[in-house]
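I am writing to request your help with a piece of structural work I have in hand. I set the record out below, with my sincere thanks for your time.
___
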Amino acid sequence: MLTNAQNKYIRSLSQQKFRNEYKVFIVEGEKLAAEWLRSDSRIQMIVAVEEWVAHNTALIARHSGAQLCITTESGLEAVSGLQTPNKVLLVVEAPEEPVLKPGNEWCIALEDIQDPGNMGTIIRIADWFGIGHVICSPGCVNVYNPKVVQSAMGGHLRVQTHQADLSAFLSSTQLVRYAATLHGQNVYQCERASSGILIIGNESKGISPHIAGLADKQITIPRYGGAESLNAGVSTGILCALLLPC
């Protein structure tokens, strides 16, 4: 069973200040836990029900340094952030942020994306398209927010995330910069490119005028219906499908 101290510690990790202080984050659910346990990530704690532990001894053995806590379903529910708690929860050590040095490749730059579902979806999209870097402005939601981790579906393991001053980064790069706006060039008329930076703006405000001014091209997904705008994650997926080489 979890001690009161362990229970309090895990529950505190729903808050960014404690994730930053302890340099860890939460991974929940059988599928995601299995992905992280198969990786070389440093696992601090494995909290699971007895049934899951019995069926996953090989995965657990890969991380002999992790603290294994066997608990009940109600014990797991007490520390879970999911509406329907699963059978396992991991406390994972956050990796050191890699140096931001993208090569001649595609990147995604995000300005003040604040919805965890959108952030996780965009990381997952980057993973799907083989995009290795997602650069986040300081105003973005924390990439290790539990809801971001959940919706990214393991994308953190393959996509490098960075926090950076977007103005400085975009001003210094040699890559072509594409800003997603409502009034840019029709993306269907753009040529596919082997590399570039796709800039996605805040869910309600879009890309700020200053950041938009740093773009080489402003592009848009043409609208044929009455919707005011597209979800940031949906827009990212459509634009990646149309801009990246086949």
